[in-house]
Design a protein that fits this description.
By secondary structure, the chain is an all-alpha fold. The protein has helices at about 5-50, 60-70, 80-90, 100-110, 120-135, 140-160, 165-170, 185-200, 220-250, 260-275, 285-290, 300-310, 320-340, 340-360, 360-370, 375-390, and strands at about 175, 400. Keywords: Membrane, Transmembrane, Transmembrane helix.
Length: about 425
């Protein structure tokens, strides 16, 4: 008896061929867009650091970007949430203008000193560019979901240099408690290829030195659970704070461009008069420091406040890199209290706060292993899962749905 009938083999070959072709096309688009974005981001950061006075232009920059979105970009302003909604309930192709709008808006945010990240930009560019294939190939709703998820995977993987985490992120972020494994093949292919495309363009990712990872001991395992709970609470505070400020701004300031203008005034004044430059932009140098020596224990709080102020008032960019900063510096602060090496807890915090805020513990654990080595996997997994459990059912992505509750505890209003 044949294991596969001819019809089954033809259908399987057709699916694999379609998935490979679409995923490679998506990867080429997203990987190239991420490379352009990362080079632009490097230029913006270097220019701002060499011309500190540019921070005074943050209010005007925020107003201009807000005005452009109001006039021409209202259909794409939802960003990552728009992509998630379209995967859940496909309605219409994501406008191509999302890519240049979020690219320009994020680069401007960094040029003038907002505290925002980069993942949102790469994911939105990847998703928007991928969805244009819907028109070209006249894709069905099912194939369109696959392409959008591949675009998210490719964008995430290429901007951080973590293909495994990128692939799983797109499967995990859509709904709490459920993985969309129907798109596993295209997401893995798109993530791996997009990462390679970025490297071919000359992208270089920041290395983090963890050093020798200690052997597993009962105390270290217990410390990871305790730290994971703290990381989860930090992720929840970040997500709730960002949503709350955004809601207050929208309620009391009807004219959208005025929100980032006012937010920019406050941020620029505090940074310039208080010398809080370490809390704006990506903050990668501070993250690198967190792996090497003790830092001021309030660094995580400073970054959280400036990022909530930036994103909550309407500046464009991602949440994930600021979450990395918050996690690494919070881990650095907790390390002596829990008698854990600085580098180890900084590395675990790096991914665990993100795991709680985005509700993506599996992708976060894989990211730790890709960035810091497989030996850290056990520690990262414990902290990421604990963070996920303790962060509640609301995260940084409002469109994320609850497929299965995390615990039997009653939910709290968010």
């Amino acid at each position: 008896m044949h294991l596969f009938s001819r019809q089954v083999l033809i259908a399987l070959f057709s699916y694999v061929a379609k998935a490979v072709v679409l995923a490679v096309l998506v990867a080429g688009l997203a990987g190239s867009a991420s490379a352009l974005f990362l080079f632009s981001l490097d230029w913006a950061t270097q220019t701002r650091e060499a011309n500190r006075w540019l921070i005074w232009g943050l209010p005007v920059a925020g107003f201009c970007v807000g005005w452009l979105y109001l006039k021409f970009g209202q259909h794409v302003e939802a960003g990552n949430n728009l992509l998630i909604d379209e995967i859940h309930d496909p309605k219409k192709v994501v406008p191509l203008r999302m890519a240049p709008f979020v690219l320009g808006g994020t680069v401007i945010s960094h040029l003038f000193g907002a505290s925002v990240g980069r993942e949102g930009t790469a994911v939105q560019m990847g998703g928007a560019l991928a969805d244009q294939l819907t028109h070209f190939f006249k894709l069905t709703h099912t194939d369109r979901r696959m392409v959008l998820m591949a675009g998210i995977s490719a964008g995430f993987a290429s901007v951080f240099g973590t293909p495994l985490a990128g692939a799983v992120f797109a499967l995990e972020v859509l709904a709490i408690g459920r993985l969309r494994l129907d798109a596993l093949l295209p997401c893995v292919i798109a993530a791996v290829v997009a990462d390679q495309v970025g490297l071919l363009w000359g992208v270089q990712h920041t290395p983090y030195e963890v050093g020798l990872v200690p052997q597993v001991t009962p105390w270290l395992l217990a410390a990871m659970l305790v730290a994971g709970a703290v990381f989860g609470l930090a992720g929840k505070v970040f997500a709730d704070g960002t949503h709350a400020l955004s809601g207050v701004m929208k309620k009391h300031i009807a004219y959208a461009p005025l929100r980032p203008f006012l937010g920019g005034v406050v941020i620029a004044a505090v940074v310039m008069w208080g010398s809080f430059d370490r809390y704006i932009g990506l903050g990668i140098p501070v993250m690198v420091e967190a792996f090497g020596h003790p830092l001021p224990p309030t660094d995580f709080l400073g970054k959280m406040v400036f990022t909530i102020a930036s994103l909550g008032s309407g500046f464009k960019g991602g949440e994930v890199t600021p979450l990395f900063y918050i996690g690494a510096t919070l881990g650095n602060a907790l390390a002596p209290l829990l008698d854990v090496p600085f580098a180890l807890l900084a590395a675990v915090g790096f991914v665990a706060v993100f795991a709680g805020a985005a509700n993506t513990p599996i992708a976060s654990t894989l990211m730790a292993m890709e960035l810091f080595g497989a030996e850290i996997g056990v520690f990262a997994a414990l902290a990421c899962v604990m963070s996920y459990v303790c962060s509640g059912h609301a995260g940084i992505y409002r469109a994320q749905r609850v497929a299965h509750r995390k615990t039997d505890a009653p939910s709290q209003p968010s």
